[in-house]
Design goal:
296 residues; alpha/beta; UDP-N-acetylmuramoyl-L-alanine:D-glutamate ligase; two-stranded antiparallel ribbon; 12 strands; globular
Length: 296
């Protein structure tokens, strides 16, 4: 299927929402972690994880890695998740190798960047992870803004399988290509970038583009109600949930985007495109999964 462009559909998503064996345990479905958070953006971490997006999408255990100074803002909302604190200054994480090693112990997949801010040590932290680990890593939001300040050749050197989930402005920062030029040839530029840097790229938009540089999936799912703050954080949590227990692939990432879009459509039916908020998508994840399972 190399170099193909495929319109993603619900039958393709069925592969990733099969029924679990009766004798399953949490270890079968992955230990995942979300690294992010900053005093001004605690909502991003809450949406990606505290609203149960990663667990709703199937992970066995979710760990939240946050700056120590915002712990009291997060912990009251923790039920199923565990928390690991990182030393910080003015609520920005400080690079501490021993803390990071402990925070990332036994992790099967990581999402980094949601509400992370622009701390001085963000580059050191992201570089350390890319240099020293081999799990799948989803980079979003301030993680992408951090990456855009680095030498992107690190993406070809890391043992991690990297998933990048930019919107157009973030993709502009990464590629140094103006948005208007990206819009003219989105699929081509996205595919070339993914192939050059050996990543899976999810380029957000009315039609979401997911590509590994060979196959490209177009995901036309979702609605205007999802055009609201936090929807990207919800999507990251959903992707991370599936990464915990599935082999990473462009098809898996496209499936996650499709499920998020379907849940968003169902939420919009209930709440309308005006009144819908990002966390409403989470509410309808179970129904979206049921619909895909039952589709013919």
């Amino acid at each position: 299927m190399e170099n193909d462009v495929v319109l993603f559909n619900e039958n393709m998503a069925k592969e990733f929402v099969g029924y679990r064996k009766e004798n399953s345990n949490k270890g079968d479905f992955g230990y995942v972690a979300i690294l992010g958070g900053y005093i001004n953006y605690t909502g991003a971490v809450k949406l990606a994880s505290l609203s149960l997006t990663s667990i709703r999408a199937g992970s066995g255990v979710t760990r939240i890695i946050i700056p120590r100074s915002i712990t009291n803002l997060i912990v009251p909302l923790l039920l199923e998740q565990t928390v690991f604190e990182i030393s910080d200054k003015d609520s920005h994480m400080i690079f501490n190798e021993s803390e990071l090693k402990e925070a990332l112990r036994k992790i099967d997949a990581l999402a980094i960047g949601m509400g992370w801010g622009t701390g001085d040590d963000n580059i050191k932290i992201l570089k350390y992870i890319l240099d020293n680990y081999s799990f799948p890593i989803l980079i979003d939001a301030d993680g992408l803004n951090t990456l855009s300040k680095m030498d992107l050749d690190i993406l070809n050197k890391t043992k991690c399988k990297v998933i990048l989930t930019p919107h157009l402005k973030e993709f502009e920062r990464l590629t140094k290509v103006p948005i208007e030029k990206i819009k003219e040839k989105k699929e081509k530029i996205a595919k070339e970038f993914a192939k050059k840097y050996n990543v899976i790229l999810l380029l957000k938009g009315h039609t979401t583009i997911v590509t590994d540089g060979n196959v490209t999936y177009l995901v036309k799912k979702g609605g205007a109600g999802m055009a609201t703050a936090g929807s990207g954080d919800v999507l990251s949590g959903i992707i991370l949930g599936f990464l915990g227990s599935h082999e990473v692939s462009a098809k898996l990432i496209a499936s996650s985007a499709y499920i998020a879009g379907l849940a968003g459509e169902l939420a919009e039916e209930k709440y309308t495109d005006i009144s819908m908020k990002a966390s409403d998508t989470i509410e309808f994840l179970p129904q979206a999964i049921k619909e895909i399972r039952c589709s013919k």
